[in-house]
């Protein structure tokens, strides 16, 4: 092979590797969605860093509780300093409990399929008023499970090692988007490490 041929081959290989590297997170998301659609938790779990995911979501959920505690302290008679520490502890404890229930394979797989973590309760569902799950929750009923093509997706790259896939139900405002954060592990391996939950 001539020198020109060798150079062309090297360029082709480098271009192929660059393309593989760039496409890897998108391929990972595709594989995750296919596993979720098939209900294959074992295959799906290989793409999720659950300890990191739980830690990140706990931090998200404990934030609002701390803010509420601090606001209460400002408006009440107790010093902000005394309630702030308690608020942080309470917020963290509440968030940890919520995350244990939230970060389960079936719930995370639902987020990949439908762009939401929990099913939407019907307005006329009596269970919605007492916090109990709807009888149709998780059963794929028309009221709580939108179609896959009702979810809009778009992407944001954050540096070389992180990609955020945003998902939003077509009947939801843009502020209700769910952010699925994938981080690079090695050359072309990616894992879900965070789900950015829209604030109420």
UniProtKB/TrEMBL annotation:
Fetch the InterPro entries from UniProt: DUF2939 (IPR021330)
Record keywords, A-Z: Membrane, Transmembrane, Transmembrane helix
Transmembrane stretches, start-end: 6-27
The organism sits in which domain of life? Bacteria
Q: Where is this region: Disordered?
A: 64-84, 118-149
Membrane: is it a keyword of this entry? yes
Instruction: Indicate whether Transmembrane helix appears among the record's keywords.
Output: yes
Specify residue ranges for compositional bias: Low complexity: 128-137
This one is known as Uncharacterized protein
Biological source species: Roseateles depolymerans
């Amino acid at each position: 092979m001539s020198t020109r041929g060798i150079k062309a081959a090297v360029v082709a290989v480098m271009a192929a590797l660059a393309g593989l590297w760039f496409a890897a997170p998108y391929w990972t998301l595709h594989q995750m969605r296919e596993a979720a659609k098939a209900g294959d938790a074992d295959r799906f779990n290989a793409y999720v860093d659950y300890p990191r995911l739980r830690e990140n979501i706990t931090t998200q959920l404990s934030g609002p509780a701390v803010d509420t505690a601090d606001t209460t302290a400002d408006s009440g008679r107790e010093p902000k300093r005394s309630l702030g520490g308690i608020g942080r502890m309470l917020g963290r404890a509440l968030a940890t409990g919520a995350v244990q229930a939230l970060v389960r394979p079936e719930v995370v797989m639902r987020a990949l399929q439908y762009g939401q973590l929990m099913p939407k309760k019907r307005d006329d569902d009596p269970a919605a008023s007492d916090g109990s799950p709807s009888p149709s929750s998780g059963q794929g009923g028309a009221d709580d499970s939108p179609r896959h093509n009702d979810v809009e997706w778009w992407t944001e790259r954050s540096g070389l090692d992180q990609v955020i896939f945003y998902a939003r139900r077509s009947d939801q405002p843009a502020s209700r988007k769910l952010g699925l954060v994938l981080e690079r592990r090695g050359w072309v391996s990616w894992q879900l490490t965070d789900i950015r939950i829209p604030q109420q």
